[in-house]
Amino acid sequence: MAETTNQSDPLQELRALASKKADSGKKSGSKADSKEEYKEILNQAVALLPDILKTERCSIFIHDPKHQRAWLQSGTGLIEKELDIPLQRSITGEVVITGQPLIVNDMRHRDGVHRDVDQMTGYNTRNVLCVPIKNRDGNKVRGTLQVINKLNNKSFNLEDQSLLERAATLLRTATRTAYLSQGGVRRSSRSGSKALADKLKKLLPDMS
After folding, report:
1. What is the pLDDT of residue 18?
2. CA angle 43, 46, 47 (to 5 degrees)
3. Residue 122, Cβ neighbours under 10 Å: how many?
4. Highest mean pLDDT among 33-47, 80-94, 146-160
5. What is the pTM assigned to this prediction?
6. How far apart are CA 178 and CA 72, in angstroms?
7. Which residues, at least 6 apart from 48, have a Cβ–Cβ distance to it below 8 Å?
8. Cα distance between the two ends of the chain
9. By CB neighbour count within 10 A (0-12 exposed, 13-18 middle, 19+ buried), where does 87 fall?
10. Distances (CA, A) of 9 to 13, 15, 52, 166, 172
11. What span, in angstroms and rounded, lies between the C-alpha atoms of 78 and 46?
12. How many whole angstroms separate alpha carbon 160 and alpha carbon 157?
């Protein structure tokens, strides 16, 4: 019976994790503990979603409306705040600004921030599916959830988009915590992150 349920709901594990951590965060009564609980949810989501959607990578960006940028909360093979990108000329930025999901199945002919990031990281972005993470009312974009490079050279489709949008809804509360506390997060970037951010700012025009 459990196997059948898992097949009908590929997000079952993520759903259970989000529910369990949310309850744990409420019981802890500590803002610091709650923040760590929600951060763990986002990290686990990034670990789970590539297997679910058959992709190479996954990332979660938090919208910084004050500076018109988005910074990395969690990402495959990356650390928190390792990327800090302008909304202009970026897939994440387009999704934040429009509030709409975006599929780009051929990145070769698309100009933008991803070219600079690929050059710096040595990664080759072939295709991207990115969806907004909104507040409960759906009128504010707090971040984005994206998966990169569908396995076996396949393309992303509307079924993938629907699944990722469902995942984004499950991550709404956890993202809210990161969004509302981002002032402190931005000031406490980890060692090595600032250097990469500085390089990005030199490569890209100042969009702040």
Report:
1. 85
2. 90
3. 6
4. 146-160
5. 0.80
6. 11
7. 13, 14
8. 52
9. buried
10. 9, 9, 10, 11, 19
11. 11
12. 5
Q: pLDDT at residue 191 above 60?
A: no
Please state at what angle helix 172-180 crosses helix 31-53, rounded to 10 degrees: 130
Q: Work out the number of other CB atoms within 10 angstroms of the CB of residue 138.
A: 11
Residue 29 has pLDDT above 80, yes or no: no
CA 51 to the chain's CA centroid:
16
Burial 67-78 (b: 16+ CB within 10 A, else e): eebbbbbbbbeb
In the block, residue with structure tokens 């396995």: 151
What is the number of H-type helices and E-type strands within the chain? Answer: 9, 6
In one letter, which amino acid is 175? T
Q: Please give the helix or strand (H or E) that residue 84 lies within, else none.
A: strand 84-86
